[in-house]
Amino acid sequence: MFKGVLTAMITPLKDGKVDEPALRHFIDWQIKSGVHGLVPCGTTGESATLSYEEHERVNSIAIEQVAGRAPVLAGAGSNSTWETIELTRHAKKAGASAALLITPYYNRPTQEGLYQHFKAVAAAVDIPLVLYNVPSRTGVNLAPETMGRLVKIDNIIGLKDAAGSIKQTLDTIDACEGKVEILSGDDFANLSIWAIGGVGAISVTSNVAPGLVAESYNAWSRGDTARATQLQQKLNRLSGCMFLETNPIPVKWAAHKLGLCSEEVRLPLTVLDEKFRGKLEAAMADLGLSA
Predict the structure, then answer these.
(1) Which of 11, 59, 160, 259 is the most exposed place for a label (fewest CB within 10 A)?
(2) Residue 33 falls within a domain, yes or no?
(3) Residue tagged active-site, from 17, 115, 119, 132
């Protein structure tokens, strides 16, 4: 269902509110730059600090503005099963291609709890679901065996894999008997995951360099591994700078430098520390990225 580079979108803010004109402009710029899909309301989109109404509004705007030009994988996850179901229902009603569901964070469910959580959402809302495993953020790891059980549910189709272990990715593919779409959730790991059967990436770096990240996948998919590797190496410095401070702080600042939006983030996040700005600017300049 999904192939290629899907941008894990920022949510532009202005004076404490979602900047809807900037959001629409950002979406158009992303699609014109060649990305293969968009992911609103994920970690990079500051979903944890969006109100329920803002969350629904951002997903709705993304789907409306994309207007069928690319798939929209709408972020709908929460650490509450009830809230996840409600957000997923809205994603379906708004016309999302699928919903992205993070593993419940902070409350640290068991593997059985993870299974029951995702099973409940899948039963409640008939929409394709892509699960998201990022234990460094959530404090819980979705085990390959659990994913193997979950993929037997018809509308659970994929996994955004940011577990940080190629061995775990291989074990997950094995546990799922190949019946799962794996999307890289770590820009540094894109080529590695594609090499073992991954179908694409949900990228942070493509917020700032959408054309280059998309071309890395295009080169890979047409068998030009040399070009894909060259692009990956060129992008690695910028990808590293995306995490100089907590995501999406550096991403927002870089987008601001490109004239796409304010650098504003929601508390408890704060704007990028001045001591990191020169390093990020240099990485952008190396790739010819400017307003």
Answers:
(1) 259
(2) yes
(3) 132
Note whether residue 67 is domain-resident: yes
Q: Single out the catalytic residue among 160, 217, 252, 257.
A: 160
Which pLDDT tens digit goes with each residue over 156-166? 999 999 999 99
Q: 152 an active-site residue?
A: no
Q: Does 160 qualify as catalytic in the annotation? A: yes
| Mean predicted confidence (pLDDT) in 170-177 | 96
- CATH number of the domain that residue 27 is part of: 3.20.20.70
Give the tokens for residue 279.
Answer: 């390093």
Provide the mean pLDDT of the chain: 97
Residue 148 lies in a domain: yes
Q: What is the pTM of this model?
A: 0.96
Q: Is 287 a domain residue? A: no
Q: Domain of residue 63: give its range.
A: 4-224
